[in-house]
Amino acid sequence: MSVRDMLRSNDERFRALAVGLGPDEWARPSLCEEWTNHEVLAHLVIGYRLRVAGMMREILSHGVSFDRANTAMAGALAAARGPAELLDEFGELVARPRGLGRIFPPRLLLGDHITHELDILFALDRAPQISGEAVVAVLNTQVALPNPFVPAFHNSRGLRLRATDVEWGHGDSGPLVEGRGTELVSVLGSRPRMLSALRGDGVELLSSRISPSRIRRGG
Hints:
Blueprint: H1 3-18, H2 23-27, H3 37-49, H4 52-61, H5 66-80, H6 83-95, H7 100-103, H8 106-123, H9 132-144, H10 152-156, E1 160-163, E2 169-170, E3 176-179, H11 181-188, H12 203-208
Parallel strand pairs: 1-3
Antiparallel strand pairs: 1-2
Helix pairs in contact: 1-6, 1-8, 3-5, 3-6, 3-8, 4-5, 8-9, 9-11
């Protein structure tokens, strides 16, 4: 399966799951600092339809800050449209992405979407049902590619990482960190919530690298 096909399949699965969330669950804080689950959903919609020129205008209007622009856009869209409306649009955009959704590398979009799904599900103490193939694809991208939106490349340096539920590992030496693949995705993205689920003598070092200030709104 191509990464683009994997992205579409994963998005369709996420939408089917998200339709079942209730108003109280959408209003809960996500693991992405300052965003509710509703605002995370709004961000996913924006990422699939915003044009490059529109993104640049928003960044310039918010003091040349990507984070502030991203937060403002997600907050404004979530205030204007409820989760049901956003999920309807998300479903349409999965089939026919526009703007950034058409040109952004699909493996980076897959990582963004899965990380944000985990922001929602782990905040609600729900077990993810993401395919192992998709989780492995995200982990491989995270540890291999420096990304201004996701600090996983920095967070993983010098560690031996092992997933316990899928066939994935990274690094041949250094302190060990092991856990479920989705937990590793979330923590490497600087979400500390699932640190307690990880094991190994490298968890303390990984924990020291993570702080809320390192959570970028794009991933």
